[in-house]
TrEMBL record:
InterPro entries: ABC_transp_permease. GO terms for cellular component: plasma membrane. The keyword Protein biosynthesis does not apply. Its main location: membrane. It comes from Rubellimicrobium mesophilum DSM 19309. It is a multi-pass membrane protein. This is Putative sugar ABC transport system, permease protein YjfF. Coiled coil: none annotated. It is found in: Cell membrane.
């Protein structure tokens, strides 16, 4: 078990990243601009959001967080193999969607994403420790959950639009 029940540097970095992300997303003008841009570029432009500047800052922050994740992963594995995480893109998208972020944009929380990641970890741990299922079942279950949540989001958006129009 990683950490063996101790609070480690990796845990501290993760908690600080979540807290920093929550503050940045929900308590700053930059976070408001990101949500506005996620809701639609034309709408954000009408609201006075600096589109180019916000987009560049989003990419810069994303690069910083990716670099931080790479450093943490290198510390965790005590290796620097760059192809170790190839194929986890589906897991990342699924965790964000399970956490409540809309794929259509403009809505979501960092805490929700954390709960999505924890849910994904719980599912993967159960499948691996069950022993009777192949590890490929994690990809199948994650894909099914992602599909389910996408259909659920689409249904909720359709119901919301129907209520607004009539």
């Amino acid at each position: 078990m990683p950490g063996k029940g101790r609070f480690t540097l990796i845990g501290a970095v993760m908690l600080l990243s979540v807290a920093g992300g929550m503050l940045l997303a929900h308590r700053t003008r930059f976070g408001t601009n990101v949500f506005a841009l996620g809701g639609g570029e034309a709408t954000a432009r009408m609201m006075g959001v600096p589109i180019a500047r916000t987009t560049i800052l989003i990419y810069a922050f994303s690069g910083f967080m990716a670099g931080l994740a790479g450093i943490v992963f290198a510390i965790y594995t005590a290796a620097g193999y760059p192809l170790a995480t190839v194929g986890v893109e589906l897991n990342a998208i699924a965790a964000v969607v399970i956490g409540g972020t809309l794929l259509s944009g403009g809505s979501g929380t960092v805490l929700g994403t954390l709960f999505g990641v924890l849910t994904m970890g719980l599912i993967q741990t159960y499948i691996v420790f069950d022993g009777t299922l192949s590890s490929w079942w994690t990809k199948i279950v994650i894909g099914m959950l992602l599909f389910l949540f996408i259909v659920l989001q689409k249904g909720l958006l359709t119901i919301g639009a129907a209520r607004r129009t009539g």
